Amino acid sequence: MIVGVLGGGQLARMLAQAGKSLGLSFVFLSPEPDACAATLGEHLCADYEDETALANLAERSDVVTYEFENVPIQAVRSLSTRGPVHPSAEVLAVARDRMHEKDYFRALKIPTPEYAAVDSFDELQQAVAKIGLPAVLKTRTQGYDGKGQAVLRSPQDLAEVWTAWGNAPAIVEALIPFERELSIIAVRSSVGETAFYPLSENHHREGVLRLSLSRSGEAMQSLAESYIQRLLDDLGYVGVLALELFQAGDKLLANEIAPRVHNSGHWTIEGADTSQFENHLRAILGMPLGATSVRSPAAMVNLIGTLPDQDELLAVQGAVPHFYGKAERPGRKVGHVTLTSANCSPDEFDQRVSRLLTLANETELASHTFQN
Amino acid sequence: MIVGVLGGGQLARMLAQAGKSLGLSFVFLSPEPDACAATLGEHLCADYEDETALANLAERSDVVTYEFENVPIQAVRSLSTRGPVHPSAEVLAVARDRMHEKDYFRALKIPTPEYAAVDSFDELQQAVAKIGLPAVLKTRTQGYDGKGQAVLRSPQDLAEVWTAWGNAPAIVEALIPFERELSIIAVRSSVGETAFYPLSENHHREGVLRLSLSRSGEAMQSLAESYIQRLLDDLGYVGVLALELFQAGDKLLANEIAPRVHNSGHWTIEGADTSQFENHLRAILGMPLGATSVRSPAAMVNLIGTLPDQDELLAVQGAVPHFYGKAERPGRKVGHVTLTSANCSPDEFDQRVSRLLTLANETELASHTFQN
What residue ranges do the domains of chain A occupy? Predict the structure, then answer.
């Protein structure tokens, strides 16, 4: 079987790594000549809107999927006329626009921070008057890793931010005080089977994920599952879906969904019975889903901008490296490293996570404790 | 970094799968046009004796390794004049000839079953008179998976077997009664660091490995480590080395070594902190070795000849499939499946292993119990 993927980055690459063990082959469509997934399959190097390339991709593939939600929706629609594409173009239409996404949460009675669409300075003022400060102004589309966001803390910020904003359609959201950022990753197959991973606890800096920890047995698990179940069912979803949540007291507020494998689920490669990558492939191919239980509690540290000294990293006992084969560049995700707690005490686990965070230049996070 | 591999089968493929996560690239030299590793790197499709191809491989690679000991030794020697090759040609010279191998064990005071070289019918009769029956006649080179072997049970067998034997240089070995077949996998890096995996318990049928189980905490572990340590040290070995052993009472008798990643170590992908594949690469590249502890006890079932029904296999909870992308053919290893016991009781583990063995057509083995 051949799986086509829109995108050729690290998510496509890790899908292919998982897929090799299922005996699958891969074709990637991506405009980057140095796409890091390319060494794991055939690379159609073309723009996402290139109809010839899309036709080529569809023809070669038994099923098509995508690795990020900012792929042009027209490309997914075009592919859908030629063969199966999972997740669907309808899902993408929801997920790629923060306003549609929030309205959709609301329609399914999934709580969110307060929000309002904003297309003018007047609307921004009205929205902030209703929602209060602090708030955050976000582009409705194309935002990721904290890009396309501006925090509004005082009334004076509004004019300043809006002047710099340009004309991108925007949404303003209440910046709520929360205790933790969590995510839940679920999977639904093309024959309707569903499975849920244990929660991930996520730590961001400058809008970019730095650390995720598997958190099985949490009291919040069933509430998170009930929310993502509504999304899976209502969307008739096929594949892996990630739902990012804020925990505030005993409430979970939905932040956003990602219709794909998700950075906060990378720990599942070593930490769960079946990785999110393998389960995404099983799901879109209609195979039975794999078990999602935690094998041993795990932590995942992102490697951003540069790779740490390789020997120092590999010398951390139990750490499993994932280098993406990408050129180093400030802010770019060039790898991650996973630590499982199978063969160490809780204190050792904390020390090793801290060591990994230090190597990843996350000095502030490194001073926390994360015991599983 | 680019790793060159002589061979393009499943071992080369799994090396490359592991190596991708280390950010490595691969070049395979193998004469098979449909080499199953080829989709994970560049494939130089040529004979192993092809000097142009060997020069090409050496030129493209930072280090060269091989996936099987029946590669022509001249190819390894030729490559060694052009750049680093691990394990060395000297190691290969020992490992590829059963007589050299047994003499080497003896020189290092590693016990073996009794044996003798046999080049004529007279020598066969003399050897059997000394060693006794039952015994097994084996080709000195090129044997694997039970090929090139004949069992001698009665004096009448000798003439019959010898007539059919041809002229291949042979060795006759005592067929000792043993309780278990075990193997130990060790790794030594180019800077001299060593690590040992917990023992594997191996179950063969018709000379072919069917099932391996990780066995950590066994009383035999330290004895096995002491034997393989002698080999690593004396050979100045670099890479993963496997030593197959017979357990007879409180003795371990050496059967053979494999200077490479080994089928009985496939469970390390899911079951150990670092897989044998990743550690082989770390070793030949002089990186720090990864931890070898068992994360959770594991069982590996080979899929031979044909793949079982995919949906039935994937429906076994906790089973991780590894399909090699090879055409099905009687007796051919086309995949394996690993089960870890992280999320099941000992009884469930046994039931699931039995289920996998049944799916792999190992009905007799399936009735055993294997609790970890």
Answer: 2-85, 114-174, 180-366
Enumerate the residues of chain B whose CB falls inside 8 A of the CB of residue A314.
282, 287-288, 290
What would the DSSP string read from start to end of B8-68?
A: -SHHHHHHHHHHHHBT-EEEEEES-TT-TTGGGSEEEES-TT-HHHHHHHHHH-SEEEES-
Length of chain B measured in residues: 372
- On the question of a cis peptide bond just before residue B134, with omega within 30 degrees of 0, the verdict is yes
Compare CB distances from B311 to A40, A287, A311 and report the shortest one's residue: A287
Q: Establish, for the pair of chains A and B, how many residue pairs have beta carbons separated by less than 8 Å.
A: 109
Task: Report the residue from B39, B322, B342 with minimal CB separation from A295.
Answer: B342
In the numeric block, the tokens 């606890």 are attached to: A201
Give A22→chain B minimum CA distance, Å: 5
The CATH label, of 1.10.1370.40, 2.60.120.10, 3.30.1490.20, 1.10.760.10, for the domain at A114-174 is 3.30.1490.20
ipTM of the complex: 0.90
CA contacts within 13 A on the Cβ side of A257: 32
Phi first, then psi, for residue B28 (nearest 5°) are -110, 135
Mutation for B interface: A3, A17, A21, most B CBs within 10 A: A21
A2-85 CATH: 3.40.50.20
Nearest to A17 among B20, B23, B320 (CB): B20
The CATH code of domain A180-366 reads 3.30.470.20
Question: Domain B180-367, what architecture?
Answer: 2-Layer Sandwich (3.30)
pLDDT tens, chain A, 372 aa long: 999 999 999 999 999 999 999 999 999 999 999 999 999 999 999 999 999 999 999 999 999 999 998 899 999 999 999 999 999 999 999 998 999 999 999 999 999 999 999 999 999 999 999 999 999 999 998 766 767 889 999 999 998 888 888 778 899 999 989 999 999 999 999 999 999 999 999 999 988 999 999 999 999 999 999 999 999 999 999 999 999 999 999 999 999 999 999 999 999 999 999 999 999 999 999 999 999 999 999 999 999 999 999 999 999 999 999 999 999 999 999 999 999 988 889 999 999 999 999 999 999 999 887 765
- What's the pTM value of the predicted model, to 2 decimals? 0.94
